[in-house]
Design brief:
5 helices; elongated; mainly alpha
Length: 139
């Protein structure tokens, strides 16, 4: 499971890193409002955070492995966490530029797209009776 989180998070991180480069190329400041003032988002965090989200999410999903509706639970829990993270970015007013919020929001969505459905599918394959239904259909 950790490998699946590493691969999906790594792919999401690489795509986000490319988007970060494009955003900087087009002049997006990529500065966020912090408690200490305004800080530029470092490029390596754009790569590392999706990887960490993928690995931590995949390891947490192991808690549901082998349970009924595990895939759906992981999917909706991951979606809820992604929306919560996105709302923390969008809701507070501050010095963060609108273009930066848009680019970071797109990166959130990409990370969700790469990680959550794949981890949910893998965990869902461990649900009781999941493969028995396929065997009946094939015979």
């Amino acid at each position: 499971m950790a490998y699946a989180g590493l691969v999906t998070g790594g792919l999401a991180g690489l795509v986000c890193l490319v988007l970060y480069g494009i955003a900087r190329l087009f002049g997006a400041p990529m500065e966020i409002d912090t408690m200490d003032g305004v800080a530029v988002v470092p490029w390596f965090l754009v790569l590392i955070i999706p990887v960490l989200a993928g690995v931590i999410g995949a390891i947490a999903a192991l808690l549901l492995r082998g349970r009924r509706a595990a895939g759906r639970i992981v999917f909706w829990a991951g979606t809820t966490l992604a929306v919560a993270s996105l709302s923390l970015l969008l809701l507070p007013p501050g010095a963060t530029d609108l273009s930066t919020k848009i680019w970071l929001s797109v990166m959130h969505v990409i990370t969700w797209l790469f990680v959550v459905p794949q981890v949910a599918r893998i965990v869902g394959d461990s649900e009781p009776g999941r493969h028995a239904e396929r065997e009946v259909i094939l015979t």
